[in-house]
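Recall the central idea of this unit: under ordinary conditions, the amino acid sequence of a chain determines the structure it adopts. In this exercise we apply that idea directly, starting from the sequence alone.
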Amino acid sequence: MVVRFVRASPLFLFTSPSAKLKANFNYSYDPWKESTTPCSLKSAKSPNALILPTSTLRYYDKAGFFPNMKRSGGQRLFGEHEIDTVHVIECLKKSGMSIEDIRQFIAWAEEGDSTLGERYKLILERCEALEKEFEQLRKVEAMLTYKKWYYATAMELGSEEAVQAIEPQDMQKTSEKHMN
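Accordingly, the structure predicted from this sequence is:
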């Protein structure tokens, strides 16, 4: 399946072209020239739209993330493979993976099964790094939860001094009230 740009409000919706859509397609408009125009990537396989600036899509193309992208009249035609690639890139970016590592991952994916081990190792490393980040976030959450209890209890009792006077064994009783 090939998807094409279709004018839709301030967004460009990438959608499967029907005969009616092809007839209404504005070939003279080149969204790649407007770097701030947001785009929405959506396909039958990936029904959740992904909204990105056109400059981001243009950057991905120039960076070589879409080596087999088809073009028509100088315009890029996004197929299922390119849309899936964008979803993978965005996911890996959100995980904290560097653009260089994402580029390598995409290149390995294009090479096929001979790079399964390398891709697995890269994903495993990112998962381990994320787990460390999650652990740090759990510590932050624990501190914030304590502070939430502390200040709610201080407001209820009228002072911080009253909270500080609570015996450790009694903290559990007062914290249950403020933890949720």
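The chain has a mean pLDDT of 76.
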